[in-house]
Amino acid sequence: EVGNPLRLLVVGRFHWVKGYEYLLDALFILKKKHFSFKLTLVAQGDLPEEVLFQLNQLHLHQDVNLINGLPYESILDQMKHQDVLILPCP
Prior knowledge:
- Helices cover about 35% and strands about 25% of the residues.
- The protein is α/β, with parallel strands linked by helices.
- The protein has a four-stranded parallel sheet with strand order 3-2-1-4, sandwiched between helices.
- α2 links the parallel β2 and β3.
- The longest helix has 13 residues.
């Protein structure tokens, strides 16, 4: 773990086909290897119970900031402050 954490941004809607569970599994692997990151997840709609469960089960709740929707201009502003943009798609 060297320097500042990698800042990750995910923008998308909460839907099972988006594969958020795979992203969380990958972040768990990074965390086990002591890789420093902070994920901001911006999505419309209610957070699925499965995602909440997985965040807690993998002890990622300190590393993930959940935001329920943002206007387009705010998302663009968020992008300026991140290192990586992740766009989940089916």
